[in-house]
Amino acid sequence: MLRFLVFTSLAALVLAELTPQPRYLEDDNVEMRVVGGEVARPNSWPWQISLQYKSGSSFHHTCGGTLIRRGWVMTAAHCVDRSRTWRVVLGDHNINSNEGGEQYMSVSRVHLHPNWNSNNVAGGWDIALLRLTSEASLNNKVQLGALPPSGQVLPHNNPCYISGWGRTQTGGQLSAQLKQAYLPIVDYRTCTSYGWWGSTVKDSMVCAGGGRESGCQGDSGGPLNCGVNGRWVVHGVTSFVSSSGCNATKKPTVFTRVSSYIGWMNGIMG
Questions:
Q1: Model confidence at 171, in pLDDT bands (50, 70, 90)?
Q2: Can you name the residues that pair with 110 across neighbouring β-strands?
Q3: How far apart are alpha carbons 247 and 244 in whole angstroms?
Q4: Residue 11 — very low, low, confident or very high, per pLDDT cuts 50/70/90?
Q5: Contacts of residue 263, Cβ cutoff 8 Å, sequence gap at least 6
Q6: What is d(CA 191, CA 189) in angstroms, rounded to the nearest whole number?
């Protein structure tokens, strides 16, 4: 369901313990989605946005993102670290048709995390903020995503869902409709152990899934929606999967841990 961009610059990346290379989950030429899972009920994740770039006279989906203030979107740095004309679509479900509830917003400024290095996704810092040219109108289809308190880390197997329009399987079909997949948290100790991601994963990241379902190309930048105390909280920004396959065994989808960046985001947004 989710999209990620796969950049050739990762080809030279050597990772510890010979784990498969991480891959971004968006692609300029291919639409991608969540692996496994199901089509989400329309607008059931009302903070989910489609990030699109202009090519010729048309816009094309490349990543997901989360509306966190009426004029601000959170996404992955690797989605927007090139100069392009971007737009954000709010309230969307089928990205191939206009269903009447969408809001189309231009992006006035891109704020990449200053430590982001496009040649090293495994280094972390894969987060960006987009300033919209106007403020979203909140309604039953468009809402703000709730963010966690700074530093919060969820326990192993905490229930979460990834949502997005990425590939439904490695090299597979694309999804026009927003999909969701159940990806429980994999704790840091497990995710960094031998045979899993090892030292590729940092404590500023969140692992989730590791089984049949995962994020995939086209899901990058989108939310990891986690159930916490009876509400949905966005704990992750979709970052990378294994180059050996989107749902490779013991290679859970890796997300930027939102709670590591609350101070930075508040500083940018004021």
A1: low
A2: 130
A3: 9
A4: very low
A5: 150
A6: 6
Q: What is the pLDDT of residue 167?
A: 61
Q: What is the mean pLDDT of residues 81-98?
A: 94
Q: Is 126 a catalytic residue?
A: yes
Residue with tokens 């903020």: 129
- Separation of CA 239 from chain center: 6
Whole-model pTM? 0.87
**Inter-residue contact 267 to 114 (CB < 8 Å):** no
Q: Rounded to an integer, what distance in angstroms lies between the CA atom of residue 182 and that of residue 38? A: 9
Strands (E), the chain: 22-24, 38-39, 48-55, 58-69, 72-75, 86-90, 103-112, 128-132, 160-164, 179-182, 185-186, 205-208, 223-228, 231-242, 253-257
3-state percent helix, strand, coil for the chain, nearest multiple of 5: 10, 35, 50
Domains of the chain from N-terminus onward: 48-144+265-269 (2.40.10.10), 145-259 (2.40.10.10)
Q: Mind listing the pLDDT tens digit for each residue in 39-53?
A: 899 999 999 999 999
Do 251 and 215 contact (CB within 8 A), yes or no?
Answer: no
Selecting among 61, 78, 93, 235, the annotated active-site residue is: 78
Let me know if 131 is exposed, middle or buried by CB neighbors in 10 A (0-12, 13-18, 19+). Answer: middle
78 included as an active-site residue: yes
Length of the chain, in residues: 270
Query: Which of 165, 154, 155 is CA-nearest to residue 3?
Result: 165
What is the C-alpha separation between 16 and 10, in angstroms, rounded?
14
| Catalytic choice (27, 61, 93, 126) | 126
Burial class (CB in 10 A: 0-12, 13-18, 19+), 180: buried
Q: Is 61 a catalytic residue?
A: no
Q: Which residue has the tokens 């939310």?
A: 223
